[in-house]
User: Fold these one by one.
Assistant:
Number 1:
Amino acid sequence: MLLRYRVLVSNSDTTGVVADENWWKEAVFYQIYPRSFNDTDGDGVGDLGGIRAKVDYLDYLGVDCVWLNPIYASPGVDNGYDIADYRTIDPTIGDMDQWERLLEELHNHDIRLIMDLVINHTSDQHMWFQQSRDETEPYADYYYWQSEPNNWESHFEDSAWSYDEKREAYYLHLFADAQPDLNWENPTVRDELYDIVSWWLERGIDGFRMDVINVISKAHGLPDGDPETPSLTGSEHFINGPRMHEYFNELADDGLGSYNDDIVTVGECAEIDPETAVDVTGRKSNALDMTIFFEHMGLDRNEGWESCEWSLSELKSIMQKWQETTEDGAWLSLYHSNHDQPRGLSRFGDEEYRYRSATMVATWLHGHRGSPFVYQGEEIGMSNVSFESPAQLRDVWAKNFWKRQERAGKDFEQVRDRIEEFSRDNARTPMQWNDEPNAGFSDSEPWIDVADDYETVNVAAQRGAERSVLEYYRKLIRLRDEDDVITYGDFELLAPEHEQVYAIKRSLQSADYTLLIICNFAAEPLTFEPPLSVDLAAEDVTVALGNEPDPALPPILELRPYESAIYRLHD
Ligand code: GLC
């Protein structure tokens, strides 16, 4: 097995870049939602064999590390985020033998693999929960049981508590009722979870993406929450809870152990602020290398699936705050799309200008400091889809949302816009490989409908095509391999108040150029003069990448609709 990044360069004299280089800071991650990626056993659900068949494609794209959404045994209420057995692969997705072959194949292509670690909750079908319902020891206190619920709300239901007839008590679930929260106060539970972590690391994986990891510690006694909180009622008692850092340090010592130096751990952290992100990535605890934050994802929506207006200057100020607060101590994952979010192209770009806006939004994201995550399909410009009837919904959150609306007397057409804008199903439609039936994803009817545009938006049509989103992503990813400034350079936001152009400067002491990243976020052309403190001569500027040929050169830029470019400004 040959892994390019095994040898870590630190305190490099030759490049003079920042001291704490790591493979994962230089990596572009690729997120695979296995059930929607590629089906090879003909059951309409993607599988491990399907991923293995596409390792060549991942290599072609140039990504460095794959994150797999959960593939463990699960009843599938939340598509695998309800785990019934942490050490078994779900039979619809494959088996351990296929998983080992996939890992080997990825490593043979210098691509690392991180697994999803869902340890805030299990499935209600997990043996622990079944035993807990019977109060069988040692499982009786593996979950939170109470004779009366408190007033906490769940993400996917109304109350965070459901009644269990067998135990004659209520159990806590911050997500669906089939996802009971584990009682982290119980040291035996924590030991079980650390064993699982070590078990997977021993199998040679390169790290974890940790699901909703900052809600594992709940306030002692589970007090009622403030019903006026803008977030879920009770969230002040479970987000970044009182023992979180203690648990994280324990997880680092007893779970990650000696692997912690080489692997990457990416923590999905609900409602986290930048200072806490610094705390959890080293200042106060050591389990996480980087955080997945959400603030930019909340820009276009209110609570409760209501959209709201947003402005580019607001997006800038959110990103700037995160970039600047985490400058010295923390690393961020950068994303505009994942399996929980509607497609970034539809939110931040414009489907009418698919090529240009998909590539512009990518340039914008990758232009920040952090590790970019590409979500399957993003690299070919997949967009949101339409749902003609509730029968097309698959996501537990969307289905529950619709059920509540129906109970309130609404018909589907009245809420269809909101569902089409926010449903997580938007991101989960099958990967579009070609223009054959089912987009080349499966020979049988897929578990979720294929998007209507697959005949034109697909990998086969874009591979090798000159002006394609896919080929642009390849160049953008390759740029990171070659350019330390884009990886490690300091971030400076230019023209923060400008409502149409997002302009970033990146600089690194050891480099003899700075990068200038320019993105036109609108369908209108415009003339823009980046506020640079130096006078530039034409020969000082080169184009590192642009989504149109021959972009205008600074100082005065004539920008086309959704045009973006990365310039090198030489000293
Ligand atoms: C995370 C996952 C999401 C899941 C939830 C509960 O936010 O990304 O898909 O529904 O946790 O596990």
Note: The chain has two domains: 23-126+178-472, 489-570.
Number 2:
Amino acid sequence: MQLIDNYSFTGKKAIIRVDFNVPLNAEFEVTDDTRIRGALTTIKKVISDGGSAVLMSHLGRPKSGPENKFSLKHIIPTLADHLGLDVKFANDCMGDEAVEKSAALKPGEVLLLENLRFYSAENKVKTPEEKAATSKFSEKLSTYADVYVNDAFGTAHRAHASTTVIADFFTDDTKMFGFLINKELKAMDKVLKESKKPFTAIMGGAKVSDKILVIENLLDRVDNLIIGGGMTYTFIKAKGGEIGNSLCEEAKLDIALDLMKKAEEKGVNLVLPVDQVLADDFNNDANTELSSIENGKPGYMGLDIGEESVKLLTDVIMNSKTILWNGPMGVFEMENFRNGTVSIAKAIAASTANGAFSLVGGGDSVAAVNKFGLADQVSYVSTGGGAMLEYIEGKELPGVKAIRG
Ligand code: AMP
């Protein structure tokens, strides 16, 4: 495997899989350019070495061919602005224009290909037929450049033409990760393989079922496992508590009991909230009451953790040297049920200032640290929710395997 740090792109064309799947408003303007900024280091390295870059990405989920609202041409102004140069565009990633424009690229130039998912069927690998189509599609993309760079961490858990199959058309020394994927892998390995103790994982969000495998894998590594958010109530009900109308996955009660038993056997301190904010409706203006976590109330649902829980969890977090956070502690989108999530985010920031390494990942916890202006006070904010969770589950990510071998 080639390392980007000591590779010289001088005179080379690099095809770079970036993640430009960014939100656009009704005027097709980029409303959050985090992902574009994430790809800049790699693109700038290619350019400043005297190479040229062919950029490829998906945007949204087009189902049946080209659609203006999913066109990557909308992101050109933002990208050109960040790079400080003109960005060329090919209207069809498979068309003659893409072939000609990539062949004509001069050192220092950048070409963006139209949305890869306008060829949805060819782009995904599920069945052998799709694999064959994908190979042809990937092979054609590979002919646009001398070197393949994957820097799209957000799609590294998907086996797609541009993240996986294309790597087969390059040799070991002409395929590599970009700086963003390298940073993501380093942050996750720091947590999973070199964690300083005590190691605390904080799992929140709505559903236990999404996170069972992650929790199981973490039980072999962590000292403390904090459960919060809506998933708390499946554990509380399994323990015999009253949860009223709170979220609960009845089918997962046995699994919750099993996870609690495993935690005990492995000597992991499983920490559940001790109190909660109850609401009589799923609504910011609902009537609220405080109660202990086991004593919910019929007709009410728990939408945030209470102050006693905040104290308890803050104490655990402040005494940790490694922290992994995925998922909010309550319905943080509503102002009246935000306190638990804000307080935990602040505790993570304070513990980081004390020397802990903190990794925050997963759409909602990232949205929370951004919303509270704390993103630069944690050690690392992952750009890939699904990819991060699968890596932490212990799965090999297809996009990583394709390059690492
Ligand atoms: P997830 O996608 O599983 O990480 O879940 C994130 C969502 O869980 C957010 O939209 C939160 O509003 C929601 N959530 C967190 N705590 C609760 C709760 N106690 N009851 C209902 N939803 C919750």
Note: The mean pLDDT is 94.
